[in-house]
UniProtKB/TrEMBL annotation:
Keyword Flavoprotein: yes
Organism: Danxiaibacter flavus
Protein name: Acyl-CoA dehydrogenase
Swiss-Prot/TrEMBL keywords: FAD, Flavoprotein, Oxidoreductase
PANTHER family listed in its UniProt record: ACYL-COA DEHYDROGENASE (PTHR43884), ISOVALERYL-COA DEHYDROGENASE, MITOCHONDRIAL-RELATED (PTHR43884:SF12)
Residue ranges constituting the Acyl-CoA dehydrogenase/oxidase C-terminal domain according to the UniProt record: 236-383
Record family assignment: Belongs to the acyl-CoA dehydrogenase family.
Superkingdom field: Bacteria
Domain Acyl-CoA dehydrogenase/oxidase N-terminal positions: 6-117
Annotated SUPFAM superfamilies: Acyl-CoA dehydrogenase C-terminal domain-like, Acyl-CoA dehydrogenase NM domain-like
Gene3D superfamilies associated with the record: Acyl-CoA dehydrogenase/oxidase, N-terminal domain, Butyryl-CoA Dehydrogenase, subunit A, domain 2, Butyryl-CoA Dehydrogenase, subunit A, domain 3
């Protein structure tokens, strides 16, 4: 066993770190406050090859491994989790799913521009549409229907909480084609936002990741060509679960970045802020907080890297990705709360960034499977 990054990994981490500091940090407080989608930053990420990081270069990707993806996600999430969630969804939930399970035609037509993140000079990204008003954790309870009409399906229903909802051009949509078959009657489809019958609901006004554009998406008699179904008939739920196993590595890395961003700010602050005649880091209560933060963050990082390594080795990573996600997200919530405490009153105002990180941390315990869902996945694996 070797705990050593390659030269390439270190270069990618540095590129992501430099990008986050120079391009994402300016304006991050304003984007959060005014709910501005970070379009310019996401376009620049695409130019760096970070929107299709793991995709084969033959399909417009950068051909990097999952370890590189974890490193890049951590660095960008330290600064702006609204940028990194967009990156995570496009890489893990959209591109990986299409590359692994899509047909050659789907890869040529959709994956290639999505992995580049740019088409005809404009942003071209995807979204993943599983959740519904009444189907979140209980994801098999799909109410969106896709009726088989011979050469096409007719799609009807509503999807909720969709990340990249208005900025995406392409949606990967799960829908029920045969209720009698339960989860085996669910299919996944590639749907273009511009098609007749597709409408985007109002932008959600959220606690955190406020720059990210979260919307409901409505389908009213949308004609979806048969060739836009992903995989064999009935593969949709398994597809969603397989895709989410990888997605959870991305969100775990996002949580890791939020936690380590808060930790770095806290170390710097504790070295400067004086109380009772010395820098607060010399008060053992503060030092112990920093020690616990550093320890838990390192444990979260190792879980993320283990899941990524298993994925790169083509091993089963379902269990590791759930462990990484539940642990990293709970670490992020705890560490950001401690970071606010270390900053005292200054931690409670926007200029010091940690209050935003604390608000951003919360979503990592909810999306791509709540902490309870991750424990269901882990628990079932123990029972096996
Ligand atoms: N791989 C392959 N197949 C799987 C699977 C996996 N990891 N997990 C389940 N399946 C299969 C099962 O084998 C089963 O098929 P059989 O009946 O043939 O055995 C079928 O799918 C149904 O599975 P379960 O009976 O286990 O289903 P369940 O109703 O008990 O639910 C669950 C399991 C883990 C709770 C699942 O519903 C789940 O993950 N829920 C959370 C949904 C979620 O994560 N949503 C995220 C939306 S995307 C998002 O949030 C993006 C973002 O914010 C940025
Ligand atoms: P519910 O499933 O109703 O859960 C409510 C509570 O009950 C939770 O604490 C949950 O853990 C708990 N619970 C439910 N079932 C059980 C059980 N069996 N055992 C124990 N506890 C349980 N979805 C997408 O498809 N695509 C996206 O891009 C996307 N982006 C999102 C972005 C944001 C900002 C948000 C807020 C959500 C996003 N989601 C997205 C949806 C997200 O995945 C769901 O919110 C999440 O899966 C939880 O579903 P729910 O909100 O319906 O909560």
């Amino acid at each position: 066993m070797q705990f050593v990054f390659s030269e390439e990994h270190l270069m990618i981490r540095k590129a992501a770190r430099d990008f986050a500091r120079t391009e994402c940090l300016p304006g991050v407080i304003e984007r959060d406050e005014k709910m501005i989608f970070p379009k310019q930053q996401v376009k620049q990420l695409a130019e760096l090859g970070f929107m299709g990081m793991m995709v084969d270069p033959a399909y417009g990707g950068a051909g990097m491994d999952t370890i590189s993806y974890v490193l890049a996600m951590e660095e960008i999430s330290k600064i702006d989790a609204s940028v990194s969630v967009c990156m995570s969804v496009n890489n893990s939930l959209v591109c990986w799913g299409l590359e692994t399970y899509g047909s050659e035609e789907q890869k040529q037509q959709y994956l290639t521009p999505l992995a580049r993140g740019i088409k005809d000079g404009d942003l071209y990204i995807g979204a993943f549409l599983l959740s519904e008003p009444e189907a979140g954790s209980d994801a098999t309870s799909q109410h969106t229907t896709a009726e088989d009409k011979g050469d096409h399906y007719l799609l009807n229903g509503v999807k909720n909480w969709i990340t990249n909802g208005s900025s995406a051009s392409v949606y990967v949509v799960m829908a029920q084609t045969d209720v009698a078959k339960g989860p085996k009657g669910i299919n996944a489809f590639i749907v273009e936002k511009k098609w007749p019958g597709v409408t985007v609901g109002a932008k959600e006004n959220k606690m955190g990741i406020r720059g990210s554009d979260t919307h409901s998406i409505h389908f009213n008699d949308v004609k979806v060509p048969k060739e836009n179904r992903i995989g064999d008939d009935g593969f949709g739920f398994t597809f969603a679960m397989k895709v989410l196993a990888g997605g959870r590595i991305g969100i775990a890395s996002q949580a890791l970045g939020i936690a380590s961003g808060a930790y770095e700010l806290s170390v710097n602050y504790a070295k400067e802020r004086k109380a009772f005649g010395k820098e607060i880091m010399h008060h053992q209560a503060i030092q112990f907080k920093l020690a616990d933060m550093a320890t838990r963050i390192e444990a979260a990082r190792l879980l993320c890297l283990k899941a990524a390594w298993e994925k790169d080795q083509h091993q089963d990573y379902t269990l590791s990705s759930s462990m990484a996600k539940v642990y990293a997200s709970e670490t992020a919530m705890w560490a950001t709360t401690e970071a606010v405490q270390i900053h005292g009153g200054y931690g409670y105002v926007k200029e010091y960034h940690v209050e935003r990180l604390m608000r951003d941390a919360k979503i990592t315990q909810i999306y791509e499977g709540t902490s309870e869902v991750q424990r269901i996945v882990i628990g079932r694996s123990i029972l096996k």
